[in-house]
Amino acid sequence: MNVITRDELKAALGTVTVVDTLGGDYYAQQHLPGAISLVESEVADRAAALLPDKDATIVTYCTNPSCSNSKAVATRLGALGYTDVRRYVEGIEDWVQAGLPVESA
């Protein structure tokens, strides 16, 4: 599974689909710019509608390296045939600590 760094993701915003794997209140409070919310339990039901292009670059993230949500969602997307799924392992904590912008719902 491929990973993407903060700087790579920052440069790629607008050209990749960013997926927040925390969902719920976490997503509402703050998420990366333009991120969509998709949690592991919803992948089978919602992925096709939210992510119609299986060859597009998709970046999953969660809180920090100890959070396994982004890996779980990325693995499920790969199993569904998505070909370019990457993980921002450091997560939103790293993004915020770097002073980068977030959005809220």
Automatic annotation (TrEMBL):
<dbReference type="InterPro" id="IPR001763">
    <property type="entry name" value="Rhodanese-like_dom"/>
</dbReference>
<dbReference type="Pfam" id="PF00581">
    <property type="entry name" value="Rhodanese"/>
</dbReference>
<feature type="domain" description="Rhodanese">
    <location>
        <begin position="12"/>
        <end position="104"/>
    </location>
</feature>
<protein>
    <submittedName>
        <fullName>Rhodanese-related sulfurtransferase</fullName>
    </submittedName>
</protein>
<keyword id="KW-0808">Transferase</keyword>
<dbReference type="InterPro" id="IPR001307">
    <property type="entry name" value="Thiosulphate_STrfase_CS"/>
</dbReference>
<dbReference type="InterPro" id="IPR036873">
    <property type="entry name" value="Rhodanese-like_dom_sf"/>
</dbReference>
<dbReference type="GO" id="GO:0004792">
    <property type="term" value="F:thiosulfate-cyanide sulfurtransferase activity"/>
</dbReference>
